Amino acid sequence: MAIYGAFDISGSGLLAQRTRMDAISANLANRNTPGFELIQVDFAPGDPARGSDLGVHVSAIDRVPVFNGRFATVGHGSEADLADGIADGLGPMPDISYERAMVDGIEALRAYEANIQAIDTTRSMIDSAIRVLA
Predict the structure, then answer these.
(1) How many angstroms separate the CA atoms of 15 and 74, rounded?
(2) Is the pTM higher than 0.85?
(3) DSSP labels for 50-85?
(4) Which of 47, 58, 74, 109 has the least CB density, counted as fewest CB within 10 Å?
(5) Spatial separation of the C-alpha atoms in residues 54 and 11, rounded to whole Å
C-alpha cells in the first residue's frame, strides 16, 4: 500500500461517518413526525468504486418502520393519508430514542475525528520524508 492509500482509507471513513451523521440528524429532527421511519446506515469494508478492499463504504441506507404505539394527528382525509393507510387522520409515531441517537452521534463524531487525525498524521509523515530527502 502506498502512503497515499492512507488518504483514501481515511477519506472513505470521513464520507461514511458523514452519511451516518446525516441519518442521525434526520432521525432526531423527525422524532415527533407521525409516520416517519427510522433511517439506518449500514457499512461494509472496502471501496467497490475503486476495486479496493481497504477502507469502508456505505452498503445500504434503510428505512426501518419502528413505531411506539402512539398516534398523532397528521391531516384530514387527504389522498396521501389514505394511501399510507392512516385512518381518521391519525398516524403512528416513530420510536426513536433521543438518548440512543445522541450516543450514535457522539460515536460518529469520534470516528470522524479519528479519521481526520489519521489524515493529519499521514500528511506529517509525508512532510518529514520530504525534508529528509531534500
Answers:
(1) 35
(2) no
(3) TTEEEEEEEEEEEEE--EEEEEEE--SS-HHHHHTT
(4) 109
(5) 11
Number of structural domains found in the chain: 1
Residue 128: pLDDT band (50, 70, 90) is very high
Amino acid, res. 37: E
Cell triple for 58 = 456505505
DSSP 134: -
**Residues 6 or more apart whose Cβ sits within 8 Å of residue 122:** 3, 6, 7, 10
pLDDT in tens, 28-65: 999 888 888 999 999 999 988 778 888 999 999 999 88
The whole-angstrom separation of Cα 57 and Cα 48 is: 8
Fill in the amino acid letter for 20.
R
